[in-house]
């Protein structure tokens, strides 16, 4: 899918909007969340624009799997073995940027159920 010119994350991926990028690969970009909810809070996004996790998984399963391996690499590089990955799919569960993204959270106790 081509980049969406109105998408915040497409603009970050393109380098048009600054972000604290912590990892890049051919298919993903990981950057620190501007409103962190844990000592480590990084967003992992695919370079390809899809509106949500379900759409990304259907469009390119290998790329979707790379989101998880990128998250693992970032967590390990930051010194964390325990971490949480969160995908919000749809406005009703809190998705506010409609470009697939995974929240990587670590460094504090996490409760269950979340939210």
TrEMBL record:
Residue span of motif Histidine triad motif: 99-103
SUPFAM superfamilies in UniProt: HIT-like
Domain HIT positions: 8-115
Record-linked Gene3D superfamilies: HIT-like
Entries under InterPro entries matching the protein: Histidine_triad_HIT, HIT-like, HIT-like_sf
Record-given protein name: HIT domain-containing protein
Organism per entry: Nocardioides ginsengisoli
């Amino acid at each position: 899918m081509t980049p969406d010119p109105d998408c915040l994350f497409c603009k970050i991926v393109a380098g048009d909007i600054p972000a604290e990028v912590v990892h890049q690969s051919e298919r993903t970009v990981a950057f620190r969340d501007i409103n962190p909810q844990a000592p480590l809070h990084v967003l992992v996004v695919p370079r390809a624009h899809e509106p949500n996790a379900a759409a990304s998984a259907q469009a390119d399963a290998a790329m979707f799997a790379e989101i998880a391996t990128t998250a693992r690499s970032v967590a390990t590089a930051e010194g964390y073995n325990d971490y949480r990955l969160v995908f919000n799919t749809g406005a009703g569960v809190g998705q506010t940027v409609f470009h697939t993204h995974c929240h990587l959270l670590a460094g504090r106790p996490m409760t269950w159920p979340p939210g």
